[in-house]
């Protein structure tokens, strides 16, 4: 049985491919049709000496439901971290700016025609029932995470410190004992009884509590905390363009000066966590590390699910985050050209890394060994601080972190590194 003739249009070596994976599709064979198909998505060899792209298909074959599809995808050996954004520019928009403008034009057009803006939960103030369990799962995992979480015995010798008085230290780091806030970067947000209510003004900012942004996101998604009440609407809000014409009924908000008991934050705040929780025994470390690793994954994936529906805003210049449909009006931004904005934040849609920062650290293969050498810097990998701590405590690391940690790369001796071209 021979292969049928192929059209030259199927072969185009100019196509680009960013993946080194190979996909093989083996259809169901029958005596009436030749049904052999091989699809080589991309073959790339090291040093870039060979690249082949092609598709072989049977021209007389009809698609059938009985197929055996085999795909083989390998993780890369190493992966670079996201680039560090310059501080003298605004962050890029997560959503293309043209799409934002197009949506604004459509809203304005509907408003001019007197047509209300169509809203679905949670944009109309109602809860998304399917995400309430996710919010509780994230909240419980977050409380477990701050309980269980120094990445190496000694700091590295890289001279890349750009903090205050860095020139006097010739860019060398001044190492001190770390805390949980160095592992889980604290990102706080104002707690609002009604996210669709009045905006926080600069003069009224002290009348609202600041709590972890992840906790505020869980509250707005359905988690009930008595110390931090939240309005649960039964009637949706109505909007005409950018103007709210019906807030789903009038409801008196609790007095903003009624602060919650500070002790109520102990379960879900990272402040002075080392003092509140006792140090575990060495025999329990592997189990605790695995539980912490699982909780970290639950929080990260759960926050991603919630942010697909619930709006979270972030400043395009600083690290301020606000959970809700609109950002607050507190003039607290002191970053690039804040004088031109009178200290106002430049609000845009937030990303998961802005709400739950990974805080990448260098991966240390031997915590009791010598410090990382600057000459071998390109051979070392990085990982989120929580992942690095859990791995050193004996936890199994998910495969997605192994490329950025460069576990498959052999670190040479300094003498050998000089001989490598």
TrEMBL record:
State the organism named in the record: Vigna radiata var. radiata (Mung bean)
- Kindly give the PANTHER family that the UniProt entry links to this protein: EUKARYOTIC TRANSLATION INITIATION FACTOR SUI1
Q: Mind telling me which InterPro entries this protein's record contains?
A: APO_dom
Q: Which gene encodes it?
A: LOC106764846
State what protein this is by name.
APO protein 1, chloroplastic isoform X2
Query: What are the GO MF terms of this UniProt record?
Result: RNA binding
- Record domain APO: where: 142-227, 314-399
- Per the record, the coiled-coil ranges are none
């Amino acid at each position: 049985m021979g292969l049928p003739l192929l059209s030259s249009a199927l072969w185009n070596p100019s196509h680009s491919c960013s993946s080194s994976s190979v996909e093989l599709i083996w259809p169901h064979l029958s005596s009436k049709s030749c049904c052999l198909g091989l699809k080589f998505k991309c073959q790339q060899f090291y040093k870039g000496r060979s690249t082949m792209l092609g598709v072989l298909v049977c021209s007389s074959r009809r698609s059938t439901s009985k197929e055996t599809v085999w795909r083989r995808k390998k993780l890369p050996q190493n992966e670079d971290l996201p680039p560090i954004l310059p501080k003298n520019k605004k962050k890029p928009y997560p959503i293309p700016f043209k799409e934002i403008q197009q949506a604004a034009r459509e809203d304005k057009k509907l408003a001019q025609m007197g047509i209300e803006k169509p809203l679905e939960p949670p944009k109309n103030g109602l809860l998304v029932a399917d995400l309430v369990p996710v919010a509780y799962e994230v909240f419980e995992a977050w409380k477990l995470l701050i309980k269980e979480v120094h990445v190496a015995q000694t700091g590295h010798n890289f001279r890349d410190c750009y903090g205050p008085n860095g020139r006097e230290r010739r860019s060398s780091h001044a190492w001190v004992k770390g805390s949980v806030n160095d592992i889980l970067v604290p990102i706080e947000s104002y707690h609002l009884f009604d996210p669709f209510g009045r905006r926080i003004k600069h003069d009224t900012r002290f009348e609202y509590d600041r709590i972890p942004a992840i906790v505020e996101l869980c509250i707005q998604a359905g988690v009930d905390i008595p110390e931090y009440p939240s309005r649960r609407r039964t009637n949706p809000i109505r909007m005409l363009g950018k103007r709210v014409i019906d807030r789903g009924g009038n409801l008196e908000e609790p007095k903003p000066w009624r602060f919650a008991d500070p002790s109520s934050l102990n379960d879900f705040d990272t402040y002075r966590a080392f003092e509140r929780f006792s140090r575990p025994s060495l025999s329990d470390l592997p189990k605790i590390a695995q539980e912490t690793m699982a909780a970290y994954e639950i929080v990260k994936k759960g926050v991603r699910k919630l942010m697909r529906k619930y709006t979270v805003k972030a400043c395009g210049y600083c690290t301020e985050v606000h959970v809700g449909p609109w950002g607050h009006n507190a003039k607290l931004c002191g970053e690039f050209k804040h004088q031109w904005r009178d200290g106002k934040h430049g609000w845009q849609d937030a990303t998961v890394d802005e709400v739950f920062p990974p805080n990448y650290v260098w991966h240390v293969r031997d915590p009791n060994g010598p410090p990382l050498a600057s000459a071998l810097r390109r051979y070392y990998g990085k990982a989120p601080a929580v992942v690095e701590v859990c791995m050193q405590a004996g936890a199994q690391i998910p495969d997605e972190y192994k490329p950025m940690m460069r576990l498959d790369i052999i670190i040479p001796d300094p003498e050998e590194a000089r001989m490598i071209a």
